[in-house]
Amino acid sequence: MTLPSAVLQGVGVSVAPNEVTNHMLARVMETNDRWIRERSGIGIRFFVDPGTGSADLGVAAAQRALDDAGIASEDVDYLVCATMTPDHYFPGTGSLIQSRLGLAPLPAVDLRQQCAGFAYGLQMVDALIKSGAARTVLLVGTDVHSSLIPWSERSWEVLYGREEGPLDAEELEWNNRFRHLTVLFGDAAGAMVFQADSEAEGRGILGAALFADGDNMEILYVPGVGSAYRPFVSAEMIERGDAVPSMDGRSVFKLAVTHMPRVTREVLETSGYSLDDLDLLIMHQANLRINEAAQKFLKLPDEKVHNNIQKYGNTTSATLPLAFYEAREAGKAPEGSLVAFTALGAGLHYGSVLMRV
Ligand code: ACO
Fold it and tell me: Helix, strand or coil for residue 108?
């Protein structure tokens, strides 16, 4: 018996409305355009207005993906949502998206694999469709990183030029403490719709090589806020900055350039393909320098890779669909092309998923 394939039917994206340049960031911390571009490749990113959560961006991307697919929302029978910035501690964002899209009650899950969340979601979509548990699955990756940025109201006003700077020394020092992090992120969502197809052998999601490595948890995590503490959250935790992610950027960088090429090769090999067969590599957009190094290790030409971190920063769960969406618009992912989606993020969680578009 041939199992049904999970075939991609549509893609949609939603990017936050407020463009923030590197020069604007220099109003609220000691940084500059050159440092940010040289170290990360990022030129601009977009932030939401306060009050817009990951569900709002996710709904917009999901609706566009359904429109792109030409699939009515009532046909969706499973929703998978990847986010590390849910609207609320609980419930997850999946049920908010279900409700705001006007979907009838259906199974909805949230995945918490951070920058690898969308890759894990692709494997889950494949398993749901192959097992017969679902026929039409909506996969959403959405993150509002600006909600994690610990700036004061005044810093935000100075950033957008609505109040005159400079900031006082204490505030500048606080903002500088997180500058290696806050320059990297942006807010966006991406979504894909998949349908079961029993006559599409060799198409759809073909395989996955996914891993978790908790031994390296402390190189990228939020030190405070959680059941490891009583109370779960306290004013002291927030004052210490323990509610803000902590990142040993160099260690993340080293592990990313090692694991991302390795898992890309692995998923190709275990699925019966070689690097020569690959038409397009979509990598998580954490740092352009990581992706350039991974591309070099794999000896892939520029036309087989698509990066867009320059325009959006790191949007965590949204990077894979956002980069794929733009690659497809640029003609790099026509029907029939073989695409690998490779990511690494906090956990560590990392891996690669192979798809025939
Ligand atoms: N502007 C100016 N100077 C800065 C900034 C900034 N924004 N940030 C840090 N610096 C300074 C530091 O203070 C330091 O100064 P010093 O030498 O006087 O002490 C110097 O620049 C070098 O700092 P490093 O942190 O060592 O910089 P590095 O070269 O490692 O680059 C970076 C930092 C860009 C973060 C890099 O390590 C990186 O990209 N790592 C991977 C990031 C990543 O993948 N994150 C995971 C995604 S997040 C997720 O999964 C949720």
Answer: strand
